[in-house]
Design brief:
heterodimer, A: alpha/beta, Rossmann fold, 2 domains, seven-stranded mixed beta sheet, globular, B: 3 helices, binds nicotinamide-adenine-dinucleotide, binds zinc ion
Chain lengths: 381, 131
């Protein structure tokens, strides 16, 4: 088959690769119809994620048609259309039973950090991803959701990650009626978090970024006010002013380890790699949120450790919530929002490329050029 | 905002009650409806590196890129270091760099005969000219 292959930092190619096989009785093989590129893929693309092996295939947001099923699979048949959560979960372990699918302990032998994730380095289990013609999907009766007949693949594609992640980000903020919510980052995840904040009862939603097209998207698509980092030299004060000097009730970090905005964090974390990336967005969240407020983190950070102002957080009495999204738990609820037009995932897709042009798609999405918000690959065009 | 003071975003406030939020409470106790096994069978191929501190590999894992060559040795070493130590992660990042280097070198191996031929040609020609 043809598949995207990692060859080193800033270098991905589309090459021939053996077709995936059923390796466990609960696997299915999916013929991929759509595979999105995620902000998380950029961390891999930049060589920021430990144990990213040359020759592996990225892609954890995909839809497809079942091609082959393992002998124990019961709920899925060849020909079924599926949308697949980025977490690989067994459904039966201590964590899955509690609904913490992102913490499943049956799918990642490498560490005790997270569940297996498709196409996301050996740090999350070493599975190949969906930016390919075919992909192996383990525990096919647990994670994947059947795509309803009346919906097209692109309508539900972002239920694989971005919609649940953005929604969970807002939900973890424990937003109460009337709260002021700030969202750092207007990538796909931040945009969904901002839109979800309204659904959860916020009275004011403010989104922060430095990319013109994305700020306009935040206004149009998410109905948010915006703070433009190209003009605002002191984002912490600007955020604090939002609630009479107190700061927002909830601040959501939808940026993660490759945040810009601090020369020393960029030098130490992103260039010299003495820390796993920059944590400046987290600094801003902690400093700007009101005392007793909540910081919700979905932007990805990696091991082993970042410098964060924990003393400020402690003294202010903040609540922290954070997670790799528990995608499966949110799919049915968010499907209703998609149907009703309250979360228009499809509307976030700005660019489509055939799989063969995946390297160009990475460059474009990485540069955030040409108004790009969400980039989708079409493998079997 | 409209005149009632509510924001006119479609569905604003619709998930206001914690009881309708899918992730509340954070830990629910209900078995997954799709799951139908107790402990899944072990995936056949046992090549992954055992998770340090835990007794056995998970029943399912990826097998796409087993560790190989020098980068593989460094990665194996890394997984012997507990994950709470920075050394584990530094070794893994070093393994990544080596992996890229190994592949670049391997991709360049075909250059070797060409280089040898060119060098031989150069030596031959310069000898001939000296005569
Ligand atoms: N927790 C999860 O389950 C989960 C799932 C998906 C994505 N993520 C993570 O969420 C983050 C966002 O994903 P995305 O797809 O939207 O990525 P993205 O790269 O498209 O967007 C990130 C945005 O942040 C902006 N930004 C950079 N520095 C900033 C700063 N200091 N303040 C405010 N904005 C800043 C960038 O301009 C960009 O628009 C990534 O770290 C990704 O890995 C987490
Ligand atoms: Zn993603
Ligand atoms: Zn599990």
């Amino acid at each position: 088959m043809r598949a995207l292959v990692y060859e080193g930092p800033y270098r991905v190619r589309v090459r021939d690769k053996p077709d995936p096989r059923i390796e466990h009785p609960d696997d299915v093989i999916l013929r991929v119809t759509r595979a999105a590129i995620c902000g998380s893929d950029l961390h891999l693309f930049h060589g920021m994620v430990p144990d990213t092996r040359v020759g592996t295939t990225f892609g954890h947001e995909f839809t497809g048609v079942v091609e082959e099923i393992g002998p124990s699979v019961r709920g899925v048949r060849p020909g079924d259309r599926l949308v697949v959560p980025f977490n690989i979960s067994c459904g039966t372990c201590f964590y899955c039973e509690r609904g913490l699918y992102g913490d499943c302990e049956s799918t990642n032998p490498m560490n005790d950090l997270a569940s297996g994730v498709f196409g996301y380095s050996h740090t999350t289990g070493g599975y190949d991803g969906g930016q390919a013609q075919y992909v192996r999907v383990p525990f096919a009766d647990v994670g994947p959701m059947m795509i309803p007949d009346d919906l097209e693949d692109e309508d539900v594609l972002l239920l694989s990650d971005v919609l649940p992640t953005g929604y969970q980000a807002a939900e973890m903020g424990a937003i109460r009626e009337g709260d002021v919510v700030a969202v750092l980052g207007c990538g796909p995840v931040g945009l969904v978090a901002a839109r979800s904040a309204w659904l959860l009862g916020a009275s004011r939603v403010v989104a922060v970024d430095r990319v013109e097209a994305r700020l306009r998207f935040a206004e149009r698509w998410a109905g948010a006010e915006t703070i433009d980092l190209r003009r605002e030299r002191d984002p912490i004060s600007a955020l604090k002013e939002l609630k009479g000097g107190h700061g927002p009730d909830v601040v959501i970090d939808a940026v993660g380890m490759e945040a810009s905005g601090s020369a020393w964090q960029t030098l130490i974390g992103r260039k010299l790699k003495l820390a796993p990336g920059s944590s400046i967005a987290l600094h801003w969240a902690i400093h700007s949120v009101r005392k007793g407020g909540t910081v919700s983190i979905v932007g990805v950070y990696g091991p082993p450790a970042n410098l964060v102002p924990i003393g400020v957080a402690m003294n202010k009495g903040l609540t922290f919530r954070m997670a790799q999204a528990n995608v499966k738990r949110y799919m049915p609820h968010l499907l209703e929002h998609v149907r009703a037009g309250r979360l228009d995932g499809r509307g976030l897709i700005t660019h489509r490329f055939p799989l063969e042009h995946a390297p160009d798609a990475y460059d474009l999405f990485d540069a955030k050029a040409d108004g790009c918000v969400k980039c989708v690959l079409v493998p079997n065009a | 905002m409209d005149d009632t003071g509510r924001v006119s975003v479609a569905g604003a406030g619709i998930d206001g009650a914690p009881s309708v939020r899918p992730g509340v409470p954070r830990e629910r106790r209900a078995p997954d409806p799709g799951a139908h096994w107790n402990r899944p069978e072990q995936q056949h191929d046992l090549t992954p590196l055992a998770r340090s501190g835990l007794l056995h590999a998970t029943p399912v894992f990826g097998t796409v890129a087993p560790p190989r060559a020098l980068s593989g040795a460094v990665r194996r070493l890394a997984y012997r270091v507990p994950e709470h130590r920075s050394t584990r992660w530094a070794l893994l990042l070093a393994g990544d760099k080596l992996d890229v280097l190994e592949h670049r070198l391997a991709a360049g191996v075909w250059l070797l005969p060409v280089a040898v031929a060119l060098a031989a040609g150069y030596v031959g020609v310069s000898r001939a000219l000296r005569r």
